[in-house]
Specification:
Two copies of one chain form a homodimer. With about 375 residues, the first copy, chain A, is α/β, with parallel strands linked by helices. Helix content of chain A is about 40%, strand content about 20%. The first copy, chain A, is globular, with a radius of gyration of 20 Å.
């Protein structure tokens, strides 16, 4: 198997860790943030712009690509890397999250989930085997098991039943996987905010010896404290030689909290989504560039940033573009926001290397501010 | 004055010409196509992408920039070049065309035009002096006189009155111009399809000795034959040491027809507008990439093209992006279409240089097809 994770260093004062993931397509230093390319494109950006920002791995969504243009078409085009012109690593989710977050109607059975397409309403069916088959066709470097992602809050009774099924589905997916030599399939730990269920789920999945583990069912509306508590007791249950991926989390604050609790991988649509609505993430907090105060502001988005946008363009110009509905405005802010988060990860790695992660976190908040709401993405 | 036009060569078998325009910001080989950056951005593209496509001059719209973000703001930012991060040449129109094409209501008086904003309905007033003042603030390398662009068809009686006013307005604009040392103000020839009025207007404007002349009032719905006829008798009236600019024309066929009739400069929103709707201009005609036939087509948009899009991406992938509403699809086709037209201009210049322009035109049509409709842009 080409996939390899190496733990390089552990922070003495927290659970933060430094590592390296090796895939057939790239070497990825962890902790890592993965920009999201839902429909085989990180919205508005080219490969070169992602590389310039320092991206070594991106995420694509199985559910969307299965529906449009179809995984078989992508397989015939030579796989997802070739189809979208991205030769570094790709992680795909299982489609499970979209089934539970997008579909209006769903019927969960032991064999899989019957549901309707989120736009057309067409009847669809996804199972552990189909989710794996799609990801095998896409040829992603890291794949996800098909799981149920229960809403927050869910009853203990429901969560117990759901997690049992998620464990059975993980096993079925592992059996269906036909490219284990070149695609690493991760297990997904569910269990909501119930510590004993999380522990049970982790133990069962660890017994199946997946090359990596995702922590799912977080960032679904629960308070930040619960997310952090779940992480604190879950990551220690995962063997330390396996990477840990916190799904769907990507605000600077949540990344720092996750790293502190032993998370190695993050992804989120946040940086590109808020960019398209005119918001920049900066070292001094978020800037809503549509605001009147930036109309005549000839400074860069972030004085401390070295990205293309901050090198050549002013807040005043970007505000004009966003107000005028111009795509270049969305592009420039997407470039900046992705660069900002990837630079944050590089800074975090440097801090862990120098045994000063918690100090770095303090200093980051002192500049960024602590008032970041987790609910606005 | 920094602006200079040098006529290098005349085609022996047609009115086609080869020349060079020099401004404070760049050297421009003519015949030239100028991509349109209405709101201080050529839609979806960066400076680097425009440069890679071979753009040495772009156009920006006075009307739009006057309204948003305002010419005074741009002047305070150091002028339009600096504001938008474009250090090659910029041509601005006068705002006149938008007053007549966008505004629902207008009241043309000798002093200028009273009209309403095309979106907000706010009352606005433009005069020759104001149009020049705005362009002086923007700091474009080439400016346009404020003119009336009558619709097609207009009566002879109306056209005579309108052209008289346009001539008086041209004079007033010339008098109001405060940066003649670094911004070249062009006169605009109007007169519709009336040969004697075109002749009269040209003669009057030539007497004012503008550094260049635009031919306006074409591409406003008249048949192609009329456009070509007007060009055939108008360009010979313009001194050959002055550049001639055919406003708003940019389909390959119309460009070839214009070059044949002595036009040096073209602009049009066509390449970027149809790109955003999924249409590519290629050496074998237009491709509507949304069409089902391209679903599995793994060839580039145009085999003969060397642009970024054609180097790295397939028709199948671009079709997927366009269907999925992804901005990258619009970007890739905008890059291609601009590159295609600028390469066409380079090929035209090479053909004129080698005294084979008419043969080149024949060969282009043999591949491109003659069925191009002028009405769809």
């Amino acid at each position: 198997m080409a996939f390899k994770f190496q733990l390089l260093k552990k922070d003495p004062k927290s659970m933060a860790r430094l590592g390296i993931i090796q895939t057939d397509h790239s070497t990825i230093e962890t902790p890592v943030f993965m920009p999201v390319g839902t429909q085989a494109t990180v919205k508005t950006l080219t490969k070169e712009e992602l590389e310039a920002a320092g991206a070594h791995i991106i995420l694509a969504n199985t559910y969307h690509l299965w529906n449009q243009p179809g995984h078989k078409l992508i397989e015939r085009a030579g796989g997802l890397h070739k189809f979208m012109n991205w030769d570094r690593s790709i992680l795909t989710d299982s489609g499970g999250f979209q089934v539970f977050s997008l579909a209006d109607f769903r019927n969960i059975k032991e064999e899989g989930v019957y549901f309707k397409h989120h736009k057309s309403g067409a009847p669809l069916f996804l199972s552990p085997e189909i989710a794996i088959e799609i990801q095998n066709s896409l040829g992603s470097d890291i794949m996800m098991s098909f799981d149920e992602c229960p809403p927050y809050p869910s009853s203990r009774e429901y969560m117990e039943k759901s997690v049992e099924r998620t464990i059975r589905w993980a096993k079925r997916g592992q059996n269906a996987h036909r490219n284990a030599d070149r695609q690493a399939l991760f297990g997904i730990v569910q269990g909501g905010e119930y510590q004993d269920i999380r522990e049970y789920c982790t133990k069962e999945l660890v017994a199946m010896d997946f090359p990596g583990y995702s922590i799912g069912g977080l960032s679904v509306g629960e308070p930040k404290e619960i997310q952090n508590k779940v992480l604190s007791y879950t990551t220690p249950l995962i063997p330390e030689n396996k990477p840990r991926y916190l799904m769907g989390v990507g605000s600077p604050g949540a990344i720092l909290d996750g790293v502190e609790r032993g998370i190695d991988m993050f992804d989120c649509v946040l940086p590109t989504r808020i960019a398209r609505h005119g918001t920049a993430i900066t070292s001094t907090g978020r800037l809503l560039l549509k605001n009147k105060e930036f109309e005549k502001d000839l400074s860069p988005v972030d004085h401390k940033c070295t990205c293309y946008t901050c090198t050549y363009y002013t807040r005043s110009y970007i505000r004009h573009l966003i107000k005028a509905g111009e795509i270049l405005g969305m592009r420039l802010l997407s470039i900046h926001n992705i660069h900002f988060l990837l630079q944050l990860m590089a800074d975090i790695r440097q801090a862990i290397k120098e045994k000063r992660f918690l100090e770095f976190k303090e200093a980051f908040y002192a500049s960024y501010g602590l008032n970041e709401s987790e609910s606005d993405f």
